[in-house]
Amino acid sequence: xxxxxxxxxxxxxxxxxxxxxVALGWLAYWLSPAYAAHLKENLYASxxxxxxxxxxxxxxxxxxxxGKGVTELIAVWFGPAQRxxxxxxxxxxxxxxxxxxxxxxxxxxxxxxxxxxIAGAYIAQRLPLTVMYRxxxxxxLEPLMMTGxxxxxxxxxxxxxxxxxxxxxxxxxxxAVGLLPDQTPxxxxxxxxxxxxxxxxxxTLASRLQTSTGAAVILVYAERxxxxxxxxxxxxxxxxxxxxxxxxxxxxEELIRRCPAQYLWGYNRFKVPAGVRAPEINTDEA
Length: 286
Description:
Elements: H1 2-9, H2 14-31, H3 33-45, H4 52-71, H5 73-78, H6 81-87, E1 88-90, H7 94-101, E2 106-109, H8 116-124, E3 129-133, H9 142-149, E4 154-158, H10 161-172, E5 176-179, E6 190-195, E7 198-203, H11 205-213, E8 216-224, E9 231-238, H12 245-258
Helix pairs in contact: 2-4, 10-11
């Protein structure tokens, strides 16, 4: 019953959905002290702003942009195919076409920056795309997420051994896969690597996929434009030979610095996962 309602709501102007998102962002910030603490701690520790007034201004932007990231899912997951084409533009798509001509698979790495969901939808309209996902904590959201993401040429791979095998198979078949490289992995699936000056348990899956398959590596993020103006999707080719966890984190930092208000700072990126040994104080990397 809920999906037809969301499909109707998906026809609302994006500007309206974003205004509702700003309100939602502030509501979540004030109602969840733990979330607010994580957001402020991660944002301020990044040292992206040096003066207190600038930090407060950036914090206000982050709260609103984070809320937009929730309400815009209605348009992205449940809007008609032409809605994606109307909302998203990409001037860098030639990079993906070039990688295809080289005859390799493509490893798209999309951080929690901007509207990462529309980036996946845009790619899936053009290429077979296998995307790894984790079930949401709220179980009732999972069917909606599956409905919204498994569209066009997208296939969903669960975050387990079966899903990893699906990713390897897709790349060996010269198809594309998508990962959120700043998602905290489980025990044995990552290494400690510096991210914005702090140790972050960082997945090794991206480098293992590339090394084993020779896939081209493309960083992706969808910049959210002001006043419901849609999204500008950016692609950036990474030298595959340089891919490791330290290099990847530095590349992600560079992307985030371009539009820091649109990063998901409320995500507990610096947690110590269960069963993982806490990092040493000295996190210098070669």
